[in-house]
Amino acid sequence: MSVTETTQDRAAPIRPNQGPVAWARANLFSTWYNALLTLLIAYVLARAIPGIIDWALVKASWTGDAAACREAGGACWAFLAEKWRFILFGTFPDDQHWRPTLAILSMIGTLVVSADRRFWGKALIYIWTVGIGFSALMMFGGVLGLDYVPTELWGGLPLTLALSIVGLVASFPLGVLLALGRTSDLPVMRGLSVVYIELVRGVPLISILFMASVMLPLFLPAGVSIDKVLRALIGICLFSAAYVAEVVRAGLQAIPKGQVEAAQALGLGYWQRQRLIILPQALSLVIPPLVNSFIASFKDTSLVIVIGLLDLLSTAKAALTDPAWRGFYKEAYLFVGVIYLLFCYALSRYSRYLETVLGQGRRR
Amino acid sequence: MSDSNATATKAAAPPGRAAFHLSINNPIVRAVLAQLGVALAVALVAWYLVGNTMDNLARLSIASGFGFLDREAGFQIGETLVEFGPQDHYSTAFLVGILNTLKVSGIGILLATLLGVVLGIARLSSNWLVARIAAFYVETVRNVPLLLQLFLWYGLLTEGLPGPRQALAPLPGVFLSNRGLKLPAPADDPIWAWVAALFGLGIILTLVIAAWNAKRQAATGKRLSMLPIGLGLVFGLPLLVLLASGGGAIDMPVLQGFNFRGGMTLSPEFAALLFGLVIYTAAFIGEIVRSGILAVPKGQTEAATALGLTRGQLLRLVVLPQALRVIIPPTTSQYLNLTKNSSLAVAIGYPDFVSIANTTINQTGQAVEGVLSIMAAYLIISLSLSFLMNWYNSRVALVER
């Protein structure tokens, strides 16, 4: 189109979205390099997709043993049919698998219900007490005629969920305290908080987990031993508290100084001020990043494999060591990967939704 | 501690002759008491833990301290940048580990930045297919644990590839097998040292000319095109010398018996770790780059176009300098994350620092020293990296006058 054209000369504007051809022209072939890219990608997809379909569906085996799988040459879904219970529940007693199933459902239910903003407030405390309490009852047993199942036998998805949910809930108070310490005027509190936060954030989670697993027993008096799962939980708590603290600090810094001064003028003391005025506002500001840090901690729990816990990823890896079923790592990791993806994607969509909804009041 | 308390109290005390009541209701007294309380509590807990640890170590008859570093390590390390044998000391093993960590993180940061920038731009592409594929990549990769991805890559690189005899050869001299990736390498020839030196010299000269060029542009408005000059100096100069000397000797990998000889090897462990780290971190960097570009107001682009800047100038002079301010701080955290995540090497058997320290802990029982060394090493790396990035950030940050 030349610049000298006047409005009268111009034909009716071409509307995009007018049929697939116009759409393709606007979105796939707008310039010569876009056209080139489109063709290149189309070529690669045309080469790759039939192969993937072939592997995942056409040549796949859904039943039979490992030999039949190798014969067919495609994906071995029979491996998952054989191992899915072990991957999901680990070494939890076979005849009791309904218990971790109910525990998982109860934990997911608790998360889903607390995602609804209508329940935010006091109701949330009751929901969590009931939901998480019920899950714990199902996992531990020992009362109401249920067999006691020690944590050594826990594994798979319930362990992953328990470590990340309990880890985040337990690290939350410590994180808030650290954030308050870091923004405080008192040099001792500030110094200790800064040192803790920076120290923990500067080292990999693995080293904290090693510390929890090999050094924690050394810290305790002789003869006192603590459970392996609890050790991992302590490590995860200490780690995520530092990250929660930084998220909360961002919220605290966003509260205008006038709020503090107004609260002081009303004669409120430090803790009253924080509890009634500052923290409610700061925390509601940082709910979306808190959901994000929950996603991170959910993914990070997979590292407990290095200290020998059987979480969801470890059970998948352990299922692969069965000599009869060696080599079906793609199927195992795909299965576990999809579970992680479902959880994390749902959570990250939720975090983005919250950002828009909660941000509405502040938008101009 | 008490010193800083005293000065803080003095500083906080109201000026003049305000009466100082020694009462629990006095905010200053309360502040001092609270701080003393917390400091005391922390000290007590630390004293209790250290005391227990000392007792336990004595009971297990483990000598505390770093004396074990001078003892013979007695284990082999698969990949080393310096000479290492089983007779060498634990201190050398630690050095090997740190160098391996630095190697994988350094290369990883470089590649993740490149891939991340491409991804960030791709998600904003006007080509629907490109934008969709980039979005799909980011959403999938970000929401699956890195460790799972590492296991998958490691599986693909070891079990998924054929043995050395049936190795894939995508290019002449490049072999892909379950023993890793074999590449041709420069042979032991002095000409390569010259090439490397000229490459470094080319970079320095380019930087000097670029600085002079910027000054000249500010003074006269004239500007030399830097791209051909830079490319010529950095790549052309070494290439010219190489050609003039008749080309350097190259060590080609050859299949001999059951394995390859010669050439350069990327072990499956290193390759899996590097792939995993780069692919995972690039997804995050891509999102940062995208938000950085989106943060530059549209009016800026329009104004620059109205001034007659070309697309290249628009990107280089208007969009990038502003986008970098938004991009650099979060990218720094991603670099730190990549470095810390390289510790997952321990799960797939690449001998990084954590993996070597872990072996040392298992052999010597020096758990406290081992974990402390790991933490100290990562703290030093993290602090240096963030210092470097903060320095760079301060150079591109907005200077408000």
TrEMBL record, chain A:
The membrane topology of this protein is: Multi-pass membrane protein
Task: List the keywords (alphabetical).
Answer: Cell membrane, Membrane, Transmembrane, Transmembrane helix, Transport
Q: Does the keyword Transmembrane apply?
A: yes
Q: Does the keyword Secreted apply?
A: no
Please give one Gene Ontology molecular function term for this protein: transmembrane transporter activity
User: What InterPro entries does the record tag this protein with?
Assistant: AA_ABC_transptr_permease_3TM, ArtM/GltK/GlnP/TcyL/YhdX-like, MetI-like, MetI-like_sf
Transmembrane residue ranges? 32-53, 98-116, 123-146, 158-181, 202-220, 232-255, 276-295, 332-348
Query: Which SUPFAM superfamilies does this entry report, sorted A to Z?
Result: MetI-like
Report the Pfam families cross-referenced here: BPD_transp_1
- What PANTHER family does this protein map onto? INNER MEMBRANE AMINO-ACID ABC TRANSPORTER PERMEASE PROTEIN YHDY, MEMBRANE COMPONENT OF AMINO ACID ABC TRANSPORTER
Record family assignment: Belongs to the binding-protein-dependent transport system permease family. HisMQ subfamily.
Protein name, as recorded = Amino acid ABC transporter permease
Q: What phylogenetic lineage does the species belong to?
A: Bacteria, Pseudomonadati, Pseudomonadota, Alphaproteobacteria, Rhodospirillales
Automatic annotation (TrEMBL), chain B:
Instruction: Please give, as recorded in its UniProt entry, the membrane topology of this protein.
Output: Multi-pass membrane protein
What GO MF annotations does this protein's record show? Answer: transmembrane transporter activity
- Record carries keyword Membrane: yes
Just give the chief location class. Answer: membrane
User: Which ranges form a coiled coil?
Assistant: none
One GO location term (cellular component): ATP-binding cassette (ABC) transporter complex
The record's listing under SUPFAM superfamilies reads: MetI-like
Q: Which UniProt keywords apply?
A: Amino-acid transport, Cell membrane, Membrane, Transmembrane, Transmembrane helix, Transport
A Pfam match: BPD_transp_1
Source organism per UniProt: Niveispirillum cyanobacteriorum
GO process annotations (BP): amino acid transport
**Where's it found, cell-wise?**
Cell inner membrane; Cell membrane
- Under what name is this protein listed? Amino acid ABC transporter permease
Record field: transmembrane: 31-50, 104-122, 134-156, 191-212, 224-250, 270-289, 371-392
Q: What's the superkingdom here?
A: Bacteria
